[in-house]
Amino acid sequence: MRTMLNIANYEVRHILKDRVAFAIVFLAPLFFAFLMGSVYYSAAINDVPFALVDLDNSLASREVADYFSTGQHFKINPEIDTCEKMEKAMREGIIRGGIVVPEDFSKKLARKQSTEVLVVYDASNLLWGYNIRKFAYEGMDEFNRRYAAAYLQSMGMHPAQSDEVLNLVNCSIMTWYNPTYSYINFLYAGVIFIILHQLGLLGVTLTIPREKEGNTWIHYLASPLERWQIIFGKSLPYIIAGFFNYALLLWFAHHFILLKIEGSILLIALLGFLYTCAIIFLGFFISLYAENSLQISRYLILLSIPIFMISGYTWPRYRIPGIIIAISELTPFTWMAEAFRKVTIKNLGFPDIAYNVLGLSIMIVIGLALSGTFRKDREPIAEDKIRVNGGPEYPRRV
Amino acid sequence: MLRLFYAFFRREFTYIWRDRGLRVVLLVMPLLSLLLFGLAYRAQVLTDIPTAIADLDRSAQSRALASDIKQAENLDVVAYYNSYEEIKRAIEKGEVVVGVVIPEKFGQQQELRRPTRVAMIIDGSNMVYAINASVAVLQVVRTIEVKSGVKVLLAQGEHMKDAMNALMAVNIVDEPWFNPTINYAFFLVLGLVLNIWQQCCTLLSAMTIIGETGTRSWVHLKSSSRSLFIIFLAKILAHLVIFMATVAVLYGLCFEVLHLPLRCDFGKLMLFTMGFAVAMHSLGTLVSSFSRTAADASRIVMAIAVPAFVLSGFSWPLEAMPQILAQVVKWLPQTGFFQGVIFLSMKDASWAYMSQYYFQFLLFALVAYALTAVIFRLVPQKTS
Questions:
Q1: Which end of chain B is more exposed for a tag (fewer CB within 10 A), N or C?
Q2: Tell me, what's the ipTM?
Q3: Minimal C-alpha gap between A227 and chain B (Å)
């Protein structure tokens, strides 16, 4: 135990001495969480740049316009009042959607005929497209309800009677877990976990290449230290720092970015611990076989967005082919992101995340087993051909 | 001079080929990402949202209602339950996204023309689902409510047409422009693949200076009295050729194999991509001029390139970001690129519109290369 702590102490000194390692382990997670938090801080898409083309210009059409111009969903651009202008503005991204009220709108309503309004939206970016579509349907639904009530009353119905007709089957739509449709609740936890995942891996994967580059790894190999002492001693500072970052980022996200975090604190802590350990032991294994820190820096960071996108965190899992899901399950992120959403957003208990806990635990065991595969006798460096940036050497100014 | 230029141009290709890490990064990673994203978003359109119905009444009316829901566009009724608790559990477990609970005595209340409440529950934990589900549910709710209202009006002696007109006065015709099938792959795959490509290229550009000055051969090169300007120009050109060759392959696969939409001229797209490639290369070169090691340079450029995708407004609109952040990120070449690629490929934006991005790339590249030249002179270029 004492030996292990000595190795850990040595590793901590290295981290504190090396500016890059210090930044990766202690500064970068909070910095990136802050940066990404700023991006998603508004949480919802409001004030959508919108055009209102009112070809009827009547009292009724202005009522429709009121549904779109009042409230926070749309920001009407008053300069765009024709279909041609609307088309040009859509092409140039000045507006992201628009509504066209036809010329005979009020006439048809007066004749008690049904009419149509055209809602167009920019579907080249579906974040705009989906939201505009939803807002438009909600707005027109509300307009139709009011219109129908007025119509029925004009037929001589008492308001209570018209209510009865309109609400004979009253469908109440309830959105659970994220009733405000907040993108922070949807995305931000995943962003935090990918930050922790990648920076955690990057930090620990530098540990052995650093020793190899400094020609000090031989000391470990030649010493009477047990392999498990080297693994745990070198990993311990990263596990502690990783768990600290996990807690810090969640605290920051909850208090400053207003990420919804419900559920059992104990489960959240358990998931954090397992996630950190899985990342660190996986990282230690990569670290053992990586040629140098340049190679690690190149590959690891490149994988950030693919890991996030194929995990099923945003695009529904059942829509993703099995082979991709199987690949995504090789990373701790997939297991953690799903479990965390279940606990903190859906407020579910242990039985619902037992599978994820098992998945993370298996990853820890596999990570540990793989980390113990290094041989204590040093292998000779293969020099069969000339390579650039291979082995422990890579370009550096001293 | 031309011979020197050509010699270093060729040498750069040899160096890149010998660097196994870079070789894999440039040749394998963009293609691998295309395969991954292409497969992940193969479903393309989000239809058939898993829906469950708990009919607590089991009357003719409730069955008719369930049948209406079953016929709704985009909702796929996958389960029928006997209680609210079962629906709740299914939503918690993520087995269904929409749950409909038809209350007890629904039929009886309908016959007595008393209002009844049907609960429509949407799982909001995944927004991609939730927003689509909410529109699908709104549409089905509208149909159900109109149908029931029409029945009452018909019973009161109204004509069918009048009853329908009263309750469905204004219909929405919704037209998604530029992506008429609301195809998720059209929206995301090209952007994601180009994001990986730009990261790979940034890694290569991060070697421009440190890749020379960080090696022992730098002493020979420096003392050989060759023009450093020509040497680095040859390197830059070699890098740009590689960038454009890899992106041409990716574009070919995206537009010809995956059939992603390309509404503009291919040459126009390549020219725009080249503008970005120059700006991006200048950033990598700038970073490589002051980094101590190649690993540091790679980390720094990636610390910019990875978040730049999120900051570019591709996945979250710039308009929804805090003003100050939006103003800052507008100057990153990635922002102009990811915005511009969508405008070109899906909207065939005009030269006049795209000129703002070209100007931005040019300005960025000029500033970054100029800074590189200054730093190169200031930072001592020693080797071990």
A1: N
A2: 0.87
A3: 28
Tell me which residue in A177, A299, A304 faces B123 most closely, judged by beta carbons: A177
Residue B250's alpha-carbon distances to A275, B32, B96, B160, B347, in angstroms, are 35, 11, 37, 57, 20
Across the interface, do B138 and A137 touch by the CB < 8 Å criterion?
Answer: yes
CA–CA dist A373, A370 (Å, integer): 5
Question: Which of A3, A58, A28 lies closest to A224, judged by CA?
Answer: A3
Domains of chain A: 2-41+182-371 (no CATH), 48-166 (3.40.1710.10)
Q: Write down the pLDDT at residue B384.
A: 45
Name the packing angle between helices A227-256 and A350-371 (round to 10°): 140
B182 in the Ramachandran plot: left (φ > 0), alpha (ψ -120 to 50) or beta?
left
pTM of the model: 0.88
Spatial separation of the C-alpha atoms in residues B347 and B179, rounded to whole Å: 9
- Listed residue (B375, B34, B62, B156) closest to A158, CA to CA: B156
- B135 CB neighbours in chain A (<8 A) are 130, 133-134, 137
Tokens found for residue B81: 């339950």
Tokens linked to A87? 């088309």
Taking a contact as any Cβ pair under 8 Å apart, which residues of chain B between 279 and 318 contact chain A?
Answer: 292-296, 298-299, 302-303, 306-307, 309-311, 314-317
**Rounded distance between C-alpha atoms, residue B254 and residue B194, angstroms:** 10
CATH of B49-167 among 3.40.30.10, 3.30.450.20, 3.40.1710.10, 3.30.1060.10:
3.40.1710.10
Asked if residue A16 lies in contact with residue A232, where contact means CB atoms within 8 angstroms, the answer is no
Residue scoring higher pLDDT (A147 or A386): A147
DSSP string, A245-268: HHHHHHHHHHHHS-----S-HHHH
pLDDT surpassing 80 at residue A231: yes
Give me the residue spans of the domains in chain B: 2-41+183-378, 49-167
pLDDT bin (cut points 50, 70, 90) of residue A224 is confident
What radius of gyration, in Å, describes the C-alpha atoms of chain A? 29
Q: Which structure tokens are listed for A294?
A: 């340049």
3-state secondary structure of A120: strand
Query: Pick from A197, A263, A191: which is nearest to A34 by CA?
Result: A191
Burial of A59 (0-12, 13-18, 19+ CB in 10 A): exposed
For residue A76, the cross-strand partners are: A50
Structure tokens belonging to residue A86: 């609307």
Confirm if A313 and A190 have CB atoms less than 8 A apart. Answer: yes
Average pLDDT of chain A is 89
Task: Please state, as a whole number, how many other Cβ atoms lie within 10 Å of the Cβ of residue B3.
Answer: 7
At A53, the pLDDT band (50, 70, 90 cuts) reads very high
Chain B residues 257-286 with CB within 8 Å of chain A: none
Cα–Cα distance for residue pair A293/A396, rounded to 1 Å: 12
Nearest to A68 by CA among A86, A88, A47: A47
Q: Which two tokens stand for residue A132?
A: 């505009």
